[in-house]
Amino acid sequence: MSRENAARILPLLQRYQVLAGMLVLLAFAGLQSPSLFYSSENLHNIFNQLAIPGILAVGMTFVILTGGIDLSVGSHIAFLNCVAATWLKAESSLLVSSAYTLALGAGIGALLGWIIGVTKLQPFVVTLAAMVSLQGISFIYTKNQFVSGIGPYLEPLKASLFGIPLSGLLLVAVMTAGVVLLGKGVLGRRIYAVGGNEEAARFSGVPVARTKIAAYALNGVCVAIAALLLTARTDSGQQSPGAKYELDAIAAVVVGGSSLLGGRGNVLGSVIGALFILSTDNLFNLNLIDDKIALAVKGGILLLAVYLQNLGRQR
User: Fold this and answer.
1) What is the helix (H) or strand (E) element at residue 164, kind and residue range?
2) Range 224-254 burial, b when 16+ CB lie within 10 A, else e
3) For 163-188, what is each residue's pLDDT tens digit?
4) Over residues 46-69, mean pLDDT
5) Which residues pair with 160 in a beta bridge?
6) Which long-range contacts (CB under 8 A, 24 or more apart) does 9-17 make?
């Protein structure tokens, strides 16, 4: 292939890499196990499970667009899962428990954003510390015990409307809000500006610290929504049900076309990236492939996506 052709193809591949990946995955699934993967039951299962990783990917998009990252998502969702379950077990209403969980998620996210924006510590370090701390807090909060016996309060979150699970409708609502906020809102323009060039954004009058606080707070809200759905799915509060969620969320955003350097990406691509990661896991499970191999493959996919983006930047 000539350099001229490569220069034309690379931007297209970079922009639509998640769609290219989905096509390859679907073709491979059609060759490997079409009767299993394409069965109506399996496809329904995939889309029913998409809500949690999809919503987490939306939240992670806000963070990564600022040039940041959040490694604490798994511990964050586990802690909020325990909090929501504890409140519901105390016979608090779903509305009150949900409001409290959402506020707590936004508060934790805003705190991380404040630390990163004001102290200018690296997001990797701050969120790594939060990952460890929140995991410990979860065990302390629950006294190292599972929270069970929640009762019927979460039944509305398991309901369907016109045959569509409420969790799926929540994903669509969160995704739509993210698309509108980033595409039409002032905050969205500021997030792109901060991620594109933080110093230039600061000189242009963009409140960088407040923008990062808002981005991490929005991520916290998305984590809280996912935690409520996780609580409804498991009917319990567990200290470590969020393991690997941070990897899946980051991988979904990057595979979906967002740059880890910030300033480039979109919510729709991130949700499709989450669908790609979930479908990959599903295909591995159908073929009885070990989870450790699946982790290795996801790491390779993430590395390939970052490599393609770096090639694009260099050109």
Assistant:
1) strand 164-165
2) bbbbbbbbbbbbbbbbebbeebbbbbbbbbb
3) 778 888 999 999 999 999 999 889 99
4) 94
5) 165
6) 10/308, 10/311, 10/312, 10/315, 11/312, 11/315, 13/308, 14/257, 14/308, 14/309, 14/311, 14/312, 15/257, 16/257, 17/255, 17/257, 17/305, 17/308
Q: Which amino acid is at 160?
A: S
Chain-centre distance of CA 286, in angstroms?
24
CB-based contact 312:10 (threshold 8 Å): yes
DSSP code string of 173-221:
HHHHHHHHHHHHSHHHHHHHHHHH-HHHHHHTT--HHHHHHHHHHHHHH
Q: What angle do CA 168, 185, 201 make, to 5 degrees?
A: 125
pLDDT digits (tens, 9 = 90+) for 93-145: 888 889 999 999 999 999 999 999 999 899 999 999 999 999 999 999 888 88
